[in-house]
Design goal:
The chain has nine helices and two strands. The longest helix has 26 residues. It has one domain. α8 packs antiparallel against α9. The chain is mainly alpha-helical. 69% of the residues lie in helices and 6% in strands. A hairpin with a 4-residue loop joins β1 and β2. Strands 1-2 form a two-stranded antiparallel sheet.
């Protein structure tokens, strides 16, 4: 046990030294600039993975369908067969999303940024999950919504859903940095989404969450997962301005790369 702990400490120290060296060579600090945070937040808000489930939660709440759907799901259990199975599957599926995120983080080749070593990428994506869990807990304490099974008042939002979608969001972003065919990337991205969505639905069939809890959790987890991943690991946006003058035409060309 002591040997394992020592190896972990040495590995962590070596990883930090590597990230520090890369940070100095790239001229970027460990903490993202305000511009990077702002751009990451704007892109995350525009992502359908954020606004679509949030809109769905709002529609269900306004239409007063939350309790009806939750009761039907527990009575019929169309996917998992029973509330007990659904509860067990929700844990396993959330773990699968976590493992998938970890594998994708380790699969990306190291880059030049301060957090773009394999260790740094794992730290960032786990940090997104940790942040998601903290925010979810604060919202649970503030909302005090009673669960459908009346077990406690921590129904809103669903932590299983928010965590699974945070992992799925970070995992899907990692796929963008892998050399994959478009069809393979789409399939893997769909796999992340399916696992996260199944995690959320399992919580409804288990009788411990309403659909709006799960949908809001999905929006929250996706948003936080993408913002933190892109702020720390997203590419710099570069603008190139060129003045073109020749015998026939003249003008200013503006281009940007991501």
């Amino acid at each position: 046990m002591k040997l394992v702990l020592a190896l972990l400490i040495i590995s962590f120290g070596a990883g930090c030294a590597t990230m520090r060296a890369r940070s100095e060579s790239a001229g970027r600090g460990y903490w993202p600039s305000e511009q990077r945070w702002s751009r990451a937040a704007r892109e995350a808000l525009r992502d359908p993975g954020t606004w679509a489930p949030a809109a769905g939660a709002a529609v269900i709440a306004v239409g007063d369908w939350d309790e009806k759907i939750a009761e039907w799901a527990v009575e019929q259990t169309p996917v998992f067969g029973s509330p007990a199975n659904a509860r067990s599957w929700s844990d396993d599926l959330r773990t699968s999303a976590h493992v998938g995120m970890l594998i994708s983080s380790l699969a990306v080749p190291p880059g030049d940024g301060p957090w773009e070593s394999r260790l740094g990428r794992v730290v960032v994506d786990h940090g997104a999950g940790l942040t998601t869990g903290i925010v979810t807990g604060l919202l649970k304490d503030g909302s005090e919504r009673v669960r459908p099974d009346r077990s406690d008042d921590e129904s809103f939002p669903s932590a299983h859903s928010s965590m699974a979608f945070s992992y799925a969001s970070a995992g899907a972003r990692n796929l963008e940095d892998l050399s994959l065919s478009n069809s393979t990337r789409r399939s893997l991205r769909a796999g992340f989404l399916t696992v996260a969505a199944a995690t959320g639905w399992a919580r409804v069939e288990a009788g411990v969450h309403y659909p709006a809890d799960v949908l809001f959790g999905a929006a929250l987890g996706h948003f936080i997962g993408r913002v933190i991943h892109d702020a720390f690991l997203g590419s710099e946006q570069k603008f190139d301005v060129a003045l073109r003058i020749d015998g026939d035409t003249s003008g200013v060309a503006l281009k940007w790369s991501f």
